[in-house]
Amino acid sequence: MFLKIGVIGTGAIGQDHIRRITNNLTGAKIVAVTDVNAEQAKAIVQKENLDAKVYENGHDVINATEVDAVIVTSWGPTHEEFVLASIAAGKPVFCEKPLATTAEGCKKIVDAEIAYGKPLVQVGFMRRYDKGYRALKKVVDHDKIGEPLMVHCAHRAPSAPGFSGDMALTDSFVHEIDVLRWLLNDEYVSAQVILPRNTRLVDKALQDPHIVLLETKQGIRIDTEIFVNCQYGYDIQCQIVGETGIANLPEPSSVVLRSEAKLSTDILVDWKDRFIDSYDVELQEWINSTLKGEMNGPSAWDGYVVAVTADACVEAKHTGQIVPISIPECPSFYKKDFTLV
Ligand SMILES: NC(=O)c1ccc[n+]([C@@H]2O[C@H](COP(=O)([O-])OP(=O)(O)OC[C@H]3O[C@@H](n4cnc5c(N)ncnc54)[C@H](O)[C@@H]3O)[C@@H](O)[C@H]2O)c1
Ligand SMILES: O[C@H]1[C@H](O)[C@@H](O)[C@H](O)[C@@H](O)[C@H]1O
């Protein structure tokens, strides 16, 4: 039995997901695609030799009778509309982050899904599927370093083409917002943003780097450096300081080279390579659970909590204040135990 998928948006990650579903994963095939750039949608159908129809717009994909489930990989501002339409059609939908560009938009999706009465939405927070983050979570869940007290993180990218305004927070830092609350089994209560000296290598109007300080309900303090024009590589760091020990996110595996009087290892430069395995695991688990009529991954509620937290970070950046974060009680519809065995 195959899950027949329609893809809305055949840009960078849309094409990647189409390729992995077609060539690496099992249990699904792409039967419909669309993009505002129709030529690009046609090109991927040809390139991957897909037996898929190219539709004029996302709504036609969602409503196509041959489509069982939808993947939304178009630009962020279009996600809300396509996710709401998928819920209205009663079809499972995997939506790349952000779920919606505003917390209100995410809340509308949460309300629509609850009203529909069955979970249909998964958000593309793939770090929860990364081997390294999963190993780190087991250390926390199995009490190997006592209670977590502090977390030090870095989210560095060589460059951020197309970034403007607060995208370092709303496009990049959102991954930490999601993965850290999952890792720590905790929620955020406040955010503060510190603006260090700006790199000279970006337009003066664009702040880079940022330091974000989050506090959780349990009083854990998290500091994250977000530096999206760091030049040297795509480098994701996470260190948890506990009562009795320290746990670090493992580095991606790489040959340790002793050569020419140097000891060296490569650093990845492309986000696609850093999380390539986790995208595979994420989508395979989504396909498997969707075929069983379940929805186990990051939910619309998680997408909403991330949006509320990101909004607080943006406010903290612009006001220089410590901004309280008030996350409403999680509806029972979405309550899950995330402990890893
Ligand atoms: N999880 C991750 O690590 C990750 C990585 C990259 C991108 N993303 C997210 O995925 C989304 C896409 O990012 P990308 O890098 O592929 O961008 P992209 O610009 O390469 O591709 C987006 C595509 O969507 C198309 N599009 C825009 N509006 C549309 C509409 N109304 N209907 C149909 N197609 C439409 C565009 O023509 C483009 O081809 C973004 O929301 C981004 O944040 C997530
Ligand atoms: O900062 C980038 C993140 O590190 C990636 O994982 C993608 O989500 C990309 O869209 C962001 O711009």
From TrEMBL:
Pfam families per the UniProt record, alphabetical: GFO_IDH_MocA, GFO_IDH_MocA_C
SUPFAM superfamilies registered for this protein in UniProt: Glyceraldehyde-3-phosphate dehydrogenase-like, C-terminal domain, NAD(P)-binding Rossmann-fold domains
Main enzyme class: oxidoreductase
Keyword hit for Oxidoreductase: yes
UniProt keywords, alphabetically: NAD, Oxidoreductase
UniProt pathway: Polyol metabolism; myo-inositol degradation into acetyl-CoA; acetyl-CoA from myo-inositol: step 1/7
Catalysis: reaction(s): myo-inositol + NAD(+) = scyllo-inosose + NADH + H(+); 1D-chiro-inositol + NAD(+) = scyllo-inosine + NADH + H(+)
The EC number(s) this enzyme carries: 1.1.1.18, 1.1.1.369
Keyword NAD applies: yes
InterPro entries given in the database record: Gfo-Idh-MocA_inositol_DH, Gfo/Idh/MocA-like_OxRdtase_C, Gfo/Idh/MocA-like_OxRdtase_N, MI/DCI_dehydrogenase, NAD(P)-bd_dom_sf
Domain Gfo/Idh/MocA-like oxidoreductase N-terminal: 3-125
Residues of the Gfo/Idh/MocA-like oxidoreductase C-terminal domain: 137-324
Family: Belongs to the Gfo/Idh/MocA family.
Record note on quaternary structure: Homotetramer.
General function of this protein: Involved in the oxidation of myo-inositol (MI) and D-chiro-inositol (DCI) to 2-keto-myo-inositol (2KMI or 2-inosose) and 1-keto-D-chiro-inositol (1KDCI), respectively.
Protein name: Inositol 2-dehydrogenase/D-chiro-inositol 3-dehydrogenase
Lineage: Bacteria, Bacillati, Bacillota, Bacilli, Bacillales
Gene name for this UniProt entry: iolG
